[in-house]
Amino acid sequence: MPADAARPGPIADPRLRVVALVGLAFGFSALAEPWALALMVALTLALAWGFGLPPAALARRLRWPGTVVAAVVILLPLMSGETVLAHIGPLTVRAEGLEVATVIALRFLCIVAVAAALLSAVPLPRLVAALRALGLPALMADMALLMLRHVEDLRQGLRRMRVAMRLRGAPAGFWAGQFRANGWALASLLLRSHAQSERIYHAMIVRGHGAARASPEPFRASRRDWTVLIALLLAGSGLVLLEHVL
């Protein structure tokens, strides 16, 4: 398990973790009131703490999703709405756009944080096996494993090529003359990727992936797993019901 991964947590069965994630994601996506969003954030933090995801690891996992959602947060207040809050040079910040951007950002980041808390302790092959046990077609499961293995091989190959370039005297900084070199290295890896993907796929077939009679990985959910799952689903659906009632 990676050093920054969450601990096994209250739910040991990865199938129930996936079900909990889907249920909470649907519940979070339906919230819009400020008090409901505040409770959503509190539930997310409690979940991350309960599953043992360190704050530093959570911040690292939210870094790239936060970069993506930052574009929405920046653009919506400038493009949507009628009530003007402030003028920043030629730009106008509007209240309605800022409100929508805040709601979208909180929903998105909370769903990503819940996914990190629930799934970071589950190895990827076991996660794919859990999805297959939940009804994912075997072909899609094998494609997911092939993609993950292929991406990992590309990442390792790019790292080796960058180390080799530095040993030969290339600049260490990514932007210090190395942008083109990294582009050529990545292009070379992509050109070799077709043959690599075929070898990986044949190796997976030899190891039994995709076999029609291959026995699925056994999963057993304890009473505690079911109790925590029901509690999480009730918490997510309870927020939605409270928002519609109040």
Q: Which structural class matches the secondary elements?
A: mainly alpha
In terms of DSSP E residues, the strand content is under 5%
Counted up, domains total 2
> Uncertain runs with pLDDT below 50, 5 residues or more?
none
Give the spatial strand order of the biggest sheet.
1-2
Structural Rg: 22 Å
The quaternary structure here is single chain
Question: Sheet with the most strands?
Answer: 2 strands, antiparallel
Q: Give me the count of strands.
A: 2
Helix count equals 9
Large-scale geometry: flat
Q: Sketch the topology as an H/E string, one letter per element.
A: HHHEEHHHHHH
Q: Helix amount, in percent?
A: over 70%
Mean pLDDT: 81
Q: How far from one another are the termini? A: 43 Å
